[in-house]
Design the sequence.
């Protein structure tokens, strides 16, 4: 029973972090629009890359320190931050290619 409760808490925490990352993405993207005054054109790719980088970074650290409670100094090679970010960027570029 305790394992089920722990799993539910982990899922809810992971979900809240996901929701907060969506809000971070929207906030950063809109902030860049507001500061630059540009909302159309190829500059949006740069803005999306910046907001994506910010929310991916926060997602990695929150997931590994809060949700999964991993010690970042002893992560296995496949879970290091550069590999995590590289996988996220690959997914972003695939998504961009599909939408064009």
Sequence:
């Amino acid at each position: 029973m305790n394992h089920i409760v722990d799993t539910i808490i982990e899922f809810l925490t992971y979900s809240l972090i996901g929701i907060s990352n969506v809000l971070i993405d929207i906030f950063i993207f809109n902030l860049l629009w507001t500061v630059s005054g540009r909302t159309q054109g190829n500059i949006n790719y740069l803005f999306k890359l910046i907001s994506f980088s910010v929310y991916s970074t926060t997602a990695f650290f929150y997931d590994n320190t809060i949700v999964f409670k991993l010690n970042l100094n002893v992560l296995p090679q496949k879970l290091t931050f550069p590999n995590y970010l590289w996988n996220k960027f690959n997914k972003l570029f695939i998504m961009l290619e599909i939408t064009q």
User: Anything to note?
Assistant: The chain has one domain: 2-99. The helical segments are 2-36, 43-67, 81-99.
